[in-house]
């Protein structure tokens, strides 16, 4: 189950725990992003660069920037 915290027009999604448990929440993230209102900006916390997820988000028209917090914590900012 994808946990999403809404803060204004930003949806904050942290999947570091799921990824550490061996889950691959990329498809759940994509489903959420595709069903959300178009004015929402997404802040997605991941344990690594998540290049496949970035590519999928860009494939549906999102602009994505990757930010490194530390070795095991990155976050993506994605918007239209």
Task: Give a quick summary of the entry.
The chain is of the alpha+beta class and 80 residues long. It has three helices and five strands.
Described by strand count, sense and barrel closure, the largest sheet is: 5 strands, mixed
Percent in helix: 25-40%
How many helix segments?
Answer: 3
Rough outline = globular
According to CATH, what is the topology? Translation Initiation Factor IF3
User: Which structural class do you get from the secondary structure elements?
Assistant: alpha+beta
Q: Strand fraction band? A: 35-45%
**How is the largest sheet built, in terms of strand order?**
1-2-3-5-4
Q: What's the CATH class label? A: Alpha Beta
Radius of gyration: 11 Å
The ordered H/E elements are: EEHHEHEE
Distance between the first and last residues' Cα: 24 Å
Number of strands: 5
How many structural domains does the protein architecture include?
A: 1
Low-confidence stretches: none
Do you know the CATH architecture? 2-Layer Sandwich
Overall mean pLDDT stands at: 97
Give an overview in words.
The chain is of the alpha+beta class. It has one domain (4-79): Translation Initiation Factor IF3 (2-Layer Sandwich), CATH 3.30.110. Helices cover 30% and strands 38% of the residues. Strands 1-2-3-5-4 form a 5-stranded mixed sheet. Strand 1 (4-7) and strand 2 (10-14) form a beta hairpin. The protein is globular and about 30 Å long.
């Amino acid at each position: 189950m994808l946990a999403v915290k809404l803060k204004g027009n930003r949806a904050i999604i942290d999947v570091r725990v799921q990824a550490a448990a061996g889950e691959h929440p990329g498809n759940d993230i994509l489903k959420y992003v595709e069903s959300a209102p178009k004015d929402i900006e997404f802040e997605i916390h991941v344990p690594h660069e998540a290049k496949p997820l970035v590519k999928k988000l860009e494939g549906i028209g999102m602009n994505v920037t990757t930010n490194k917090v530390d070795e095991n914590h990155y976050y993506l900012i994605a918007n239209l």
